Amino acid sequence: MSEERVSTRSGPGVVLVAVYAVMALAATGRSVLQITEYFSRAPVAYLLSALAAVIYIVATVALARGSRTSWRVALAAILIELVGVLVIGLVSYLVPEAFPDKTVWSHFGSGYGYVPLVLPVLGLLWLRRTRTTAQRR
Amino acid sequence: MLFPLTVALYAASAVLAAMAGWYAWRDRLIDDRVLLVAGLLEVGLLVQAVVVLVSVGDVGGGGAEKATYAAYGLTLPFVPPAVAFLAIKEKTRWAMGVVAAGAFAVAIMTGRLQQIWDLHV
């Protein structure tokens, strides 16, 4: 009797991969622009933008691979993502002068329809759903 | 940006998203009709990419706006094929979720192009 294997890239996961890919693209584009065009204006904010872009790329690839190792990589990336959007979101409200220009995570991702805030939560729920099968293999 | 083209692209992506929702509801997989609408959207996006390439010189407001304009215009035509590929591989109703998400992304990015055009040309 073989048990059905739930990979992170099947079912709802494929939608998650697609949305992560879009976010990875948007965040990468934005951070490349910010760093090449006006880095001196807010180096810290723009480096965080670049970090966000890297996290989205890692999460996209890890979810799309759907192996046991990549499940763990995805978990780490999505946890960093959640902490990032919460911390940067909060700081951008408390210390607005630290963020003269918008980043993906500032104001809890309001510039992106709050997708950056919702996405890690959905990602973690999905990883929990796929955990047992992924761990067992 | 050509306003009629933007409206046509909005309409095509709305139809595609609505079809995807309907198919997901009925638990149907991707078929020729969905691919036809995605194909029409793709043609529109290719036309838009050409328009963007021709008009990118007219965009004012600094290099960043110009670069965003060009990047969005050239990235958009890759969305429908990528979405169709994922949807064909995925044999559950979630395939249609990918199509809907892709159609939504196309609408948003097209809106952004129009916005840059309105603000800076």
Could you give a short description of this structure?
The complex is a heterodimer of chains A (137) and B (121). By secondary structure, chain A is an all-alpha fold.
Notes on the protein architecture:
The complex is a heterodimer of chains A (137) and B (121). Chain A has 137 residues and is an all-alpha fold. Chain A has one domain (12-135). Helices cover 72% and strands 0% of the residues of chain A. The longest helix of chain A has 27 residues, at 12-38. The two termini of chain A are 15 Å apart. The mean pLDDT of chain A is 85. In chain B, 39% of the residues are buried. Chain B has five helices and no strands. Chain B is elongated. The model of chain B has no long low-confidence stretch (mean pLDDT 91). Chain B is mostly helical and 121 residues long. Chain B has one domain (3-120). In chain B, 82% of the residues lie in helices and 0% in strands. The interface between A and B is medium-sized, with 17 and 20 residues. Chain A: The chain crosses the membrane at residues 12-32, 44-64, 73-95, 107-127. Chain A: This is Integral membrane protein. Chain A: It comes from Pedococcus cremeus.
Number of helices of chain B: 5
The largest pleated sheet of chain A is described as: none
Question: What does the radius of gyration of chain B come to?
Answer: 15 Å
Helical coverage of chain B, percent range? over 70%
Helical segment tally of chain A? Answer: 4
**Count of extended strands of chain A:** 0
Uncertain runs of chain B are none
The proportion of residues in beta strands of chain A is: under 5%
First-residue to last-residue Cα separation of chain B: 9 Å
Mean of residue pLDDT values of chain A: 85
Organism (chain A): Pedococcus cremeus
Keywords (chain A): Membrane, Transmembrane, Transmembrane helix
Transmembrane segments (chain A): 12-32, 44-64, 73-95, 107-127
Protein name (chain A): Integral membrane protein
